Structure formats: structure tokens, C-alpha cells
Fold this protein.
Amino acid sequence: MGSTTPLPFFRHPFFLALFSSFALLGACALAPAPPPPPPPHPPVIPPARRGTDLILEAISRQNFAQATHRLKRMAPSQRKKSLIVLLRRAEEAEAIRTALTEISRPTEPPAGEALQRLYVLSPKNFRTLFLPLAPPLQTKLLLTLIRGGRERLAIRTLRLLPPSTRGQNSFLIAKAYARWARRREQQNRLFDALELSRQSLQLDPQNALARSVESRIERIRRKKILEGLLAYRHRHLRHAILLWKEAQSIDPSQSEPKKYILKAQAILEKIQSLDPSKK
């Protein structure tokens, strides 16, 4: 038999397998790592549920303005009705708590603000809170309302009291009407001011503030009538009519301005019928 030539070492099956293993390991090392799995998606919250949660959070933080704003943007539904009721009750509860805190110091402005807010939210709760108070404290609170420019609320509150005590508090009602009349006079709402001052004087004829308001308004009314007469004498009929109408608007119960207006209008109509260019 002939002799066989030995294979080179790199072609030996053992070395071929070894080289293949190293090549495979190198390829695995050089290959890029697979991307990490995507994170799980957060659960999708429906917009209605998300809005409800925000409203409830605002109510719990007593941020009633924000809760009201979000409720206005919410579509009509039974959920919205329930949230409105919840918000209303939370506001009333907070108003009662604040009022109870503030009435211990009734000379301070916050007491008037707290009572006003409670009355706006719930007249029933306001009545329940006010009536059991001792009469001296009731009087102090009423004076606080009057001094704070809340005369209407003071008058309404006085009407809640038993009829047997209203006569004792008539001076307070007269004071409230007088202060209210003065504020209307400052706002140039002279008709309202005159009516309020007269209501005050019906209860307390000696009320100096109401009497001074009535006197000033009466002087303004008389001045407009006299200025109208002066304009009438100078044949400024339209201006005279305007002044007399202003006087009549202050106190419609007075017939004098109406007579002057009718007379001037009749003359003006006659002039216009004779000379159409005067229209």
C-alpha cells in the first residue's frame, strides 16, 4: 500500500470546528444588541373621567372658582348634575364655617362679607344661623352689615325676626334705608335715593341722614324746574322740556313739571306746523 500524506493542521477537522466556534462567537459579539421591549402603555382615561377627577380635586382643595369653571365646560349629563350638587353643598359648608368664625368679631368687615356670601348661597342656612343668636349680637351684626354697605341684606334680615321684636329694631331699619339712600344719591340715582329716604322717614321722622338726602334732592329738582322756566322765557323750548323731564324723573308724584312740559310741547308743535323747517 502506498503511504498517505498527512493533512495540514489548519485543515484538520478538530481545528476546523475550533475555528468555526471562534468565528461564531466573534459574530455574536459584533452584532448589535436587540432593542429593549417597549414600556407598557398607561391606561387610557376617558376625558369625561379625567374632568371629573379634576373637579373633585378642586372641590377637595376648596378651589370653588376652578371647579365652577370646569363644570361650565362640561357637557350636560347626570354626572354633571351630581357634581353641581356636590359643589353647592361644599360651598355652603365652607360659608357656614366661615360665618361661624367671623360672627365672633362682628365689628370687623369680614363678618359682613361672610354673612353676605352665606345668604347668597343659602338663605335657609343664613336664617338658621342668625335667628338663634342673642339679640345684642344680632344688633351688632346688623350694624356691621349697614356700615359695610349691605343695607338690603340688613333689612331682609330684620324681617326674619319675630314681629314682637321688629318695633324695637325699627330704628335700625330706618338707619339702613337712610344709608342706602345716601349711597344711591352718590351714584346719582336720585329717584331711588328719594324713595329710600322717604321710607326711612316713615319709620323714623327724626332721622337726620334721610332728611338731609331728601332736602338735597328736592333742591336739585326745584333747580331744574327754575332752569327750565328760564329757558322757556328765552324760547329755548326743547331745552326747557328736557330740564322739566329730568325734574319729573326725580319725583314723578309732582305734577308741576308735567304741566310745564305739556304747555311747551303744545307751543313747539304749533311752531312746527307753521314752519316745517323748525322740526
